[in-house]
Amino acid sequence: MKFYQYMYYSFLGLTLFLSHLLCIVVAYQYCLIEHHKTTSFPPYVAFFSAIPFLIGIIVCLIIAIKFKQHYQENKNNL
Question: Which domain of life is it from (predicted)?
Answer without folding.
Answer: Bacteria
